Amino acid sequence: MRQVLNRLALTSALFAVACGGTIAQSAGKPAIGVDSCAAARPDFGGAATAADRALFTYDANAPLNLKKAVESTTNGVEVSAISFDSPDGGRVTGLLFDPVARSGTRPGIVLMHGAQGGARGMAGQGQGLAAHGAVVIAMDAPFARRGGQWRQFTPEDRAGQIQLMKDLHRAVDVLRARPNVDAARIAYLGFSYGGTMGVQFVGIERRLKAAVLVVADGGLVSHETGPGDVLLAGLPCATRVAWLRAMTPIEPIRFIPHASPTPLLLQNGRTDTLVPAADAKVLHNAAPAPKTIRWYDAGHGLNQQALVDRHEWLHGQIGLDLLRPPG
Protein backbone atom coordinates (compact mmCIF):
# COMPACT_ATOMS: atom_id res chain seq x y z
CA MET A 1 0.00 0.00 0.00
CA ARG A 2 2.85 2.41 0.78
CA GLN A 3 4.26 1.98 -2.73
CA VAL A 4 0.82 2.64 -4.20
CA LEU A 5 0.34 5.79 -2.13
CA ASN A 6 3.80 7.08 -2.98
CA ARG A 7 3.22 6.53 -6.67
CA LEU A 8 -0.23 8.09 -6.63
CA ALA A 9 0.96 11.03 -4.56
CA LEU A 10 3.02 12.10 -7.53
CA THR A 11 -0.17 12.74 -9.48
CA SER A 12 -1.09 15.56 -7.10
CA ALA A 13 2.37 17.02 -6.51
CA LEU A 14 1.86 19.98 -8.83
CA PHE A 15 -1.27 20.90 -6.88
CA ALA A 16 1.19 23.01 -4.91
CA VAL A 17 1.67 25.90 -7.25
CA ALA A 18 -4.06 24.14 -6.91
CA CYS A 19 -6.33 22.06 -5.81
CA GLY A 20 -15.33 20.82 -9.02
CA GLY A 21 -20.10 20.06 -8.81
CA THR A 22 -22.49 22.86 -8.62
CA ILE A 23 -22.81 23.14 -4.94
CA ALA A 24 -24.84 19.97 -5.24
CA GLN A 25 -22.82 17.91 -7.71
CA SER A 26 -21.16 17.83 -11.12
CA ALA A 27 -23.21 16.77 -14.08
CA GLY A 28 -22.94 13.05 -14.59
CA LYS A 29 -21.68 12.35 -11.06
CA PRO A 30 -24.02 10.38 -8.80
CA ALA A 31 -25.08 11.98 -5.56
CA ILE A 32 -24.10 9.85 -2.60
CA GLY A 33 -24.24 10.21 1.14
CA VAL A 34 -21.01 10.83 2.99
CA ASP A 35 -21.43 7.45 4.68
CA SER A 36 -21.19 5.62 1.37
CA CYS A 37 -18.06 3.56 0.81
CA ALA A 38 -17.88 4.78 -2.76
CA ALA A 39 -15.13 7.21 -3.70
CA ALA A 40 -17.43 9.21 -5.98
CA ARG A 41 -17.99 12.88 -5.31
CA PRO A 42 -20.69 13.39 -2.66
CA ASP A 43 -23.60 15.78 -2.89
CA PHE A 44 -22.41 18.90 -1.08
CA GLY A 45 -25.94 20.09 -0.40
CA GLY A 46 -26.77 23.79 -0.28
CA ALA A 47 -24.70 26.80 0.61
CA ALA A 48 -23.03 26.84 4.02
CA THR A 49 -25.31 27.76 6.89
CA ALA A 50 -24.66 30.26 9.65
CA ALA A 51 -23.74 27.33 11.89
CA ASP A 52 -21.23 26.12 9.28
CA ARG A 53 -19.63 29.53 9.10
CA ALA A 54 -19.52 29.79 12.89
CA LEU A 55 -16.88 27.04 12.91
CA PHE A 56 -14.36 29.70 11.92
CA THR A 57 -15.11 32.34 14.53
CA TYR A 58 -12.23 33.55 16.68
CA ASP A 59 -11.49 36.19 19.29
CA ALA A 60 -10.61 39.25 17.24
CA ASN A 61 -9.64 41.11 20.42
CA ALA A 62 -7.01 38.58 21.48
CA PRO A 63 -3.46 39.96 21.26
CA LEU A 64 -1.57 39.07 18.09
CA ASN A 65 1.80 39.01 19.85
CA LEU A 66 3.39 39.82 16.52
CA LYS A 67 7.12 39.27 16.21
CA LYS A 68 9.09 40.67 13.28
CA ALA A 69 12.71 40.26 12.24
CA VAL A 70 13.98 42.19 9.22
CA GLU A 71 15.91 39.97 6.81
CA SER A 72 16.67 42.29 3.89
CA THR A 73 15.77 45.52 2.11
CA THR A 74 15.97 45.51 -1.68
CA ASN A 75 14.74 48.19 -4.09
CA GLY A 76 12.72 49.83 -1.36
CA VAL A 77 11.04 46.61 -0.18
CA GLU A 78 11.77 45.43 3.34
CA VAL A 79 11.39 41.67 3.84
CA SER A 80 10.82 40.38 7.37
CA ALA A 81 10.17 37.02 8.96
CA ILE A 82 7.06 37.31 11.11
CA SER A 83 5.04 35.20 13.51
CA PHE A 84 1.85 35.73 15.47
CA ASP A 85 -0.48 33.72 17.69
CA SER A 86 -2.87 31.28 16.02
CA PRO A 87 -6.37 31.19 17.54
CA ASP A 88 -6.13 27.39 17.58
CA GLY A 89 -2.73 27.24 19.24
CA GLY A 90 0.88 27.67 18.27
CA ARG A 91 2.40 30.40 16.13
CA VAL A 92 1.59 31.37 12.55
CA THR A 93 4.79 31.95 10.57
CA GLY A 94 5.35 33.82 7.35
CA LEU A 95 6.96 36.74 5.59
CA LEU A 96 6.05 40.42 5.45
CA PHE A 97 6.92 42.47 2.36
CA ASP A 98 6.74 46.19 3.08
CA PRO A 99 7.37 48.98 0.51
CA VAL A 100 9.08 51.14 3.13
CA ALA A 101 10.20 53.74 0.60
CA ARG A 102 6.60 54.61 -0.23
CA SER A 103 4.69 57.33 1.58
CA GLY A 104 1.05 57.33 2.56
CA THR A 105 -1.18 54.35 3.21
CA ARG A 106 -0.84 51.36 0.93
CA PRO A 107 -3.08 48.49 -0.15
CA GLY A 108 -2.61 45.19 1.67
CA ILE A 109 -2.55 41.65 0.30
CA VAL A 110 -2.78 38.27 2.05
CA LEU A 111 -0.82 35.85 -0.16
CA MET A 112 -1.42 32.10 0.12
CA HIS A 113 0.81 29.33 -1.22
CA GLY A 114 0.07 25.96 -2.84
CA ALA A 115 0.01 22.46 -1.42
CA GLN A 116 3.68 21.59 -1.65
CA GLY A 117 5.14 24.91 -0.57
CA GLY A 118 5.18 27.58 2.09
CA ALA A 119 5.48 31.30 2.53
CA ARG A 120 9.08 31.41 1.36
CA GLY A 121 8.07 29.80 -1.90
CA MET A 122 5.94 32.89 -2.54
CA ALA A 123 8.82 35.33 -2.01
CA GLY A 124 9.03 36.26 -5.68
CA GLN A 125 5.31 37.06 -5.80
CA GLY A 126 5.48 38.98 -2.53
CA GLN A 127 8.50 41.01 -3.58
CA GLY A 128 6.90 41.89 -6.91
CA LEU A 129 3.61 42.96 -5.37
CA ALA A 130 5.37 45.06 -2.73
CA ALA A 131 7.52 46.68 -5.41
CA HIS A 132 4.24 47.86 -6.93
CA GLY A 133 3.05 49.41 -3.70
CA ALA A 134 1.32 46.72 -1.61
CA VAL A 135 2.09 45.57 1.92
CA VAL A 136 2.02 41.79 1.61
CA ILE A 137 1.78 38.95 4.13
CA ALA A 138 2.71 35.49 2.82
CA MET A 139 1.55 33.03 5.47
CA ASP A 140 2.44 29.39 6.13
CA ALA A 141 -0.55 27.03 6.27
CA PRO A 142 -0.74 24.76 9.34
CA PHE A 143 0.51 21.76 7.35
CA ALA A 144 3.54 23.75 6.18
CA ARG A 145 4.39 24.64 9.76
CA ARG A 146 4.21 21.06 11.02
CA GLY A 147 5.92 19.51 7.98
CA GLY A 148 4.78 16.40 6.16
CA GLN A 149 1.97 15.90 3.67
CA TRP A 150 -0.52 18.66 2.93
CA ARG A 151 -3.42 16.23 3.36
CA GLN A 152 -3.30 12.98 5.24
CA PHE A 153 -6.87 11.60 5.05
CA THR A 154 -7.06 11.85 8.84
CA PRO A 155 -8.99 14.14 11.24
CA GLU A 156 -6.01 16.47 11.08
CA ASP A 157 -7.13 17.58 7.59
CA ARG A 158 -10.35 19.02 8.98
CA ALA A 159 -8.65 20.59 11.99
CA GLY A 160 -5.95 22.09 9.76
CA GLN A 161 -8.45 23.65 7.35
CA ILE A 162 -10.45 25.19 10.18
CA GLN A 163 -7.26 26.53 11.76
CA LEU A 164 -6.12 27.94 8.42
CA MET A 165 -9.31 30.01 8.08
CA LYS A 166 -8.78 31.47 11.55
CA ASP A 167 -5.12 32.16 10.81
CA LEU A 168 -6.09 33.98 7.61
CA HIS A 169 -8.49 36.14 9.63
CA ARG A 170 -5.57 37.00 11.90
CA ALA A 171 -3.38 37.84 8.89
CA VAL A 172 -6.01 40.41 7.91
CA ASP A 173 -5.86 41.69 11.49
CA VAL A 174 -2.08 42.09 11.19
CA LEU A 175 -2.43 44.14 8.01
CA ARG A 176 -5.19 46.31 9.45
CA ALA A 177 -3.02 47.04 12.50
CA ARG A 178 -0.18 48.44 10.40
CA PRO A 179 -0.17 52.25 10.14
CA ASN A 180 0.83 52.20 6.46
CA VAL A 181 -2.03 49.91 5.34
CA ASP A 182 -5.38 51.22 4.16
CA ALA A 183 -7.85 48.89 5.92
CA ALA A 184 -10.39 49.50 3.14
CA ARG A 185 -8.01 48.14 0.46
CA ILE A 186 -7.07 44.61 1.54
CA ALA A 187 -7.17 41.77 -0.99
CA TYR A 188 -6.62 38.02 -0.92
CA LEU A 189 -4.47 36.28 -3.54
CA GLY A 190 -4.20 32.48 -3.48
CA PHE A 191 -2.58 30.02 -5.85
CA SER A 192 -3.62 26.40 -6.32
CA TYR A 193 -4.31 25.06 -2.80
CA GLY A 194 -4.19 28.69 -1.68
CA GLY A 195 -6.76 29.59 -4.33
CA THR A 196 -9.02 26.76 -3.21
CA MET A 197 -8.76 27.78 0.43
CA GLY A 198 -9.61 31.29 -0.73
CA VAL A 199 -12.88 29.89 -2.10
CA GLN A 200 -13.83 29.31 1.52
CA PHE A 201 -12.17 32.38 3.01
CA VAL A 202 -14.07 34.84 0.80
CA GLY A 203 -17.30 33.37 2.14
CA ILE A 204 -16.46 34.08 5.79
CA GLU A 205 -14.17 37.16 5.80
CA ARG A 206 -16.19 40.33 5.30
CA ARG A 207 -13.27 42.81 5.33
CA LEU A 208 -11.77 41.93 1.94
CA LYS A 209 -11.97 44.51 -0.82
CA ALA A 210 -11.22 41.91 -3.51
CA ALA A 211 -9.94 38.37 -4.02
CA VAL A 212 -8.03 36.53 -6.75
CA LEU A 213 -8.42 32.74 -6.91
CA VAL A 214 -5.78 31.25 -9.20
CA VAL A 215 -6.27 27.68 -10.55
CA ALA A 216 -8.73 26.89 -7.76
CA ASP A 217 -11.40 24.21 -7.59
CA GLY A 218 -14.18 23.42 -5.12
CA GLY A 219 -12.10 21.98 -2.30
CA LEU A 220 -10.18 18.95 -1.08
CA VAL A 221 -13.13 16.59 -1.50
CA SER A 222 -13.71 17.88 -5.03
CA HIS A 223 -10.03 17.51 -5.79
CA GLU A 224 -9.85 13.91 -4.59
CA THR A 225 -13.09 12.69 -6.23
CA GLY A 226 -12.63 13.73 -9.85
CA PRO A 227 -12.76 11.27 -12.76
CA GLY A 228 -9.01 10.56 -12.73
CA ASP A 229 -8.38 10.79 -9.00
CA VAL A 230 -7.70 7.36 -7.52
CA LEU A 231 -5.75 8.08 -4.33
CA LEU A 232 -8.87 8.24 -2.13
CA ALA A 233 -10.31 5.16 -3.82
CA GLY A 234 -7.19 3.21 -2.88
CA LEU A 235 -7.67 3.77 0.85
CA PRO A 236 -9.60 1.44 3.17
CA CYS A 237 -13.36 1.88 3.20
CA ALA A 238 -13.46 3.09 6.80
CA THR A 239 -10.84 5.73 6.06
CA ARG A 240 -12.79 7.02 3.05
CA VAL A 241 -16.05 7.19 4.98
CA ALA A 242 -14.51 9.00 7.94
CA TRP A 243 -12.64 11.49 5.78
CA LEU A 244 -15.63 12.34 3.59
CA ARG A 245 -17.87 12.68 6.65
CA ALA A 246 -15.39 15.13 8.21
CA MET A 247 -14.49 17.15 5.12
CA THR A 248 -17.74 17.44 3.13
CA PRO A 249 -19.40 19.94 5.52
CA ILE A 250 -16.41 22.31 5.23
CA GLU A 251 -15.91 21.94 1.45
CA PRO A 252 -15.01 25.47 0.27
CA ILE A 253 -17.49 25.51 -2.62
CA ARG A 254 -20.29 25.51 -0.03
CA PHE A 255 -19.02 28.86 1.30
CA ILE A 256 -18.34 30.88 -1.84
CA PRO A 257 -22.02 31.84 -2.34
CA HIS A 258 -21.53 34.12 0.69
CA ALA A 259 -18.64 36.03 -0.96
CA SER A 260 -20.79 38.84 -2.34
CA PRO A 261 -20.26 41.79 -2.43
CA THR A 262 -16.49 41.07 -2.57
CA PRO A 263 -15.36 41.21 -6.23
CA LEU A 264 -13.72 37.97 -7.40
CA LEU A 265 -11.23 37.19 -10.16
CA LEU A 266 -11.06 33.48 -11.06
CA GLN A 267 -8.23 32.33 -13.34
CA ASN A 268 -7.96 28.82 -14.81
CA GLY A 269 -6.15 26.97 -17.60
CA ARG A 270 -7.94 25.10 -20.37
CA THR A 271 -5.31 22.35 -20.37
CA ASP A 272 -4.86 22.08 -16.59
CA THR A 273 -4.79 18.38 -15.69
CA LEU A 274 -4.80 19.01 -11.94
CA VAL A 275 -7.88 21.22 -11.99
CA PRO A 276 -9.85 20.03 -15.05
CA ALA A 277 -11.88 22.64 -16.90
CA ALA A 278 -15.14 20.92 -15.90
CA ASP A 279 -14.30 21.28 -12.20
CA ALA A 280 -13.24 24.91 -12.64
CA LYS A 281 -16.56 25.66 -14.39
CA VAL A 282 -18.47 24.18 -11.46
CA LEU A 283 -16.67 26.62 -9.16
CA HIS A 284 -17.25 29.53 -11.54
CA ASN A 285 -20.97 28.77 -11.59
CA ALA A 286 -21.13 28.65 -7.79
CA ALA A 287 -19.31 31.96 -7.36
CA PRO A 288 -21.63 34.96 -6.98
CA ALA A 289 -21.40 38.32 -8.73
CA PRO A 290 -19.43 40.47 -8.94
CA LYS A 291 -16.99 38.07 -10.59
CA THR A 292 -14.54 38.11 -13.46
CA ILE A 293 -13.60 34.79 -15.08
CA ARG A 294 -10.46 34.43 -17.17
CA TRP A 295 -9.43 31.33 -19.14
CA TYR A 296 -5.96 30.73 -20.58
CA ASP A 297 -4.56 28.29 -23.11
CA ALA A 298 -2.24 26.94 -20.45
CA GLY A 299 -1.83 24.27 -17.80
CA HIS A 300 -1.77 24.55 -14.03
CA GLY A 301 1.01 27.15 -14.00
CA LEU A 302 -0.95 29.45 -16.35
CA ASN A 303 1.15 32.00 -18.26
CA GLN A 304 2.48 35.54 -18.36
CA GLN A 305 -0.83 36.94 -19.54
CA ALA A 306 -2.49 35.63 -16.37
CA LEU A 307 0.03 37.57 -14.27
CA VAL A 308 -0.65 40.75 -16.25
CA ASP A 309 -4.41 40.29 -16.01
CA ARG A 310 -4.51 39.81 -12.25
CA HIS A 311 -2.09 42.69 -11.67
CA GLU A 312 -4.23 45.04 -13.74
CA TRP A 313 -7.38 43.76 -12.02
CA LEU A 314 -5.84 44.42 -8.59
CA HIS A 315 -4.85 47.89 -9.80
CA GLY A 316 -8.51 48.58 -10.45
CA GLN A 317 -9.70 47.03 -7.20
CA ILE A 318 -7.18 48.15 -4.56
CA GLY A 319 -4.86 50.60 -6.34
CA LEU A 320 -1.84 48.36 -6.89
CA ASP A 321 0.64 50.21 -9.13
CA LEU A 322 0.39 49.39 -12.81
CA LEU A 323 3.10 47.09 -14.13
CA ARG A 324 6.20 48.95 -15.18
CA PRO A 325 7.84 47.97 -18.47
CA PRO A 326 11.19 46.15 -18.11
CA GLY A 327 14.14 48.50 -17.76
Automatic annotation (TrEMBL):
UniProt name for this protein: Dienelactone hydrolase domain-containing protein
Keyword terms of this UniProt record: Signal
Leader peptide range in chain numbering: 1-18
TM spans (from-to): none
Domain of life of the source: Bacteria
Residue ranges occupied by any Dienelactone hydrolase domain in the UniProt entry: 94-304
InterPro entries the record matches: AB_hydrolase_fold, Dienelactn_hydro, FrsA_esterase
